[in-house]
Amino acid sequence: MWEIHSAAQLLSFGIAVGFGVAVCLLYDVLRAARRALRLSSLRVFAEDMVFSLIAAIGCFCLQLVFTGGAMRLYLFLGIAVGFVLCRVTLSRFFCPALAAGIRMGAASARRISAWAGRFTAAAVQKTARVAEKLKKICKKKQKPAKNS
To answer: What span, in angstroms and rounded, lies between the C-alpha atoms of 50 and 40?
Structure first.
């Protein structure tokens, strides 16, 4: 006879809530990147499709591990509860802070890139000047060939 273990179902529900929170935080990372980097609509659509695929695979794996692949409503409810709880609590602070961090990181990357560009340009100019000097020195040292 088939038995229902309440403790196993409660554990599965708790893990599903944790999975919902993790999915929400991952989505917040995408949202923060969108806010900070101002991505195009096509790129946002592509990111959403990849995110949905990853979340669906995770949900399938969660069901496969905890219910043997059988669809159980409590797993879907657990994921939804975790996602909604995270969205109304942690996301309010996490997403804006992460977006600010991404903006600061992008600004720092631009400054480092500009510095590297200036440094590289100066090095190239200096190398070009040295090459010109060497070219002049080589021309001076060459003796013209005598015609006999």
So the answer is: 16
Q: Is residue 131 part of a domain?
A: no
CA 36 → CA 27, 91, 92, 104, 109, distances in Å? 14, 16, 16, 9, 13
How many domains, the chain? 1
Nearest partner of 32 among 122, 92, 73, judged by Cα: 92
DSSP 142: S
Q: Considering the domain boundaries, does residue 59 fall inside one?
A: yes
Q: Which helix (H) or strand (E) holds 99?
A: helix 91-141
pTM attached to this predicted model: 0.64
87-121 pLDDT per residue, tens: 898 888 887 777 778 778 777 877 888 888 787 87
